[in-house]
Amino acid sequence: MICCLNPNCENPQNPDGTNFCLSCGVKLIPLLRNRYRVIGLLGRGGFARTYVAEDIDKLNEQCVVKQLVLSQFYGSQGTNAHKKATELFEREAKRLKELGEHVQIPNLYAYFQEGEYLYLVQQFIEGQNLLQELKQQGVFDEVKIRYFLHDLLSVLVTVHEQEIIHRDLKPENIIRRQNDNKLVLIDFGVSKQRRETSNTAIGTIIGSLGYAPIEQMQLGKVFTASDLYSLGITCFHLLTNISPSSLWMKQGYSWTSNWRQYLKQPISHELELIIDKLIEENHEKRYQSAQAVLEDLKKLPRLRNTLPPTVLSPSGILESQPQVEQKTTGSGYLRLFSNYQLLSGAIITASGSSFLAIALFTFLGTTWISSGLWLVILAGLVFIQSRSLVEKVSLIIIAVMANLLLVLSFKNLLNTNIILSGLNGLLLVILLVVLAGFVTVIIVGMWEIINKVISQYF
């Protein structure tokens, strides 16, 4: 097959030996630079077309040819848009040349002009991008996210050491290479060196909606922390299969403060904190280097009792990655309260709900009505919190258990109007509320003991 290089052609594929495109009539180019045979269209961008080609000087080895479309998209040669597109295209070539020694960044083979188009030739990476993988295999679990972060952060360390900011990090620009499962970072078309003076006008969009941080979108400024924001948003997309651009269009940047509510399955609290810091709206509060994120990843508790994660390659072969221990699903649910923040939340929920229960019993009297109303109010107060569904349900269960124990233990006291009994009644209410907190600690302790037994023997 031979591919038509007219960017406006609707059906560019033609059989070998054809001189003029059967679809648009444009003369076909058998070989670019007498070396590259373009055989198929890979993708269409705003100002570029990407093709797969064969390098006849390398025994028909496949490569990628990227074509910059000039006059068809930007009119006369003097327009600012034309100059900007040319600048970005040339910048991508320079970045690939600077970074091409890294095994997880495509090598640059050639950069030239032929006819009215500029061409960039780079290494062909066989595999799926992570958006394709997400659609095919479903959301990532914590094991896959940890591998993703470790693998890609090592690439970003090198990129940032060269003082280069990618500026468009997202699942489509990350390919899982088929032969070794390594992640390859592509598309440096809008990348920028830190020492370069920014001439991007305020309001000009550089990057992808939902993935680009506020300083990049509104001020045209970027830092290493800007790429790390996009990395955190990419983690969110892979964990939820929800496009961040759709949330951004509705809520701006505010949705990042309650991103946990969209999780499809629980992840460890420690990993949540890492993602929190990656997607801080203020770039000064984010991680300032990829290496710093890697250091925190190394401190994460080991995952237990899980088989090595597998990745389905385009050819359908299951390829295993290095083994990582992970906790079982049941164990993961039980360990929800093994950190201070959730334990304190459980104590506050149980103590506060105990006071609410006493007040309802005092003023309503009827046990069934009081209990039903208490449960509705408790559920409402818990579910408006920015926690995962599993955490919310667990908080309600703990509160119900603690208050049920109090009711069974002090049933006679609760039949009287405690709150209306003066100072003694008030002191008794305080005692019961505090007692509810202690009962919660005991329940959580038993919860952890059960978790350890299950983890050890099952």
TrEMBL record:
InterPro entries documented for this protein: Kinase-like_dom_sf (IPR011009), Prot_kinase_dom (IPR000719), Protein_kinase_ATP_BS (IPR017441)
Enzyme class: transferase
Segments forming domain Protein kinase: 36-303
Catalytic reaction annotation: L-threonyl-[protein] + ATP = O-phospho-L-threonyl-[protein] + ADP + H(+); L-seryl-[protein] + ATP = O-phospho-L-seryl-[protein] + ADP + H(+)
Record keyword Kinase present: yes
Keyword Membrane assigned: yes
PROSITE patterns in the cross-refs: PROTEIN_KINASE_ATP, PROTEIN_KINASE_DOM
Annotated EC: 2.7.11.1
Domain of life of the organism encoding this protein: Bacteria
GO molecular function term, any single one: protein serine/threonine kinase activity
Record: residues binding ATP: K66
Keywords: ATP-binding, Kinase, Membrane, Nucleotide-binding, Serine/threonine-protein kinase, Transferase, Transmembrane, Transmembrane helix
Transmembrane annotation, as ranges: 342-361, 367-384, 393-414, 426-450
Protein name from the UniProt record: non-specific serine/threonine protein kinase
Organism: Nostoc punctiforme FACHB-252
Lineage: Bacteria, Bacillati, Cyanobacteriota, Cyanophyceae, Nostocales
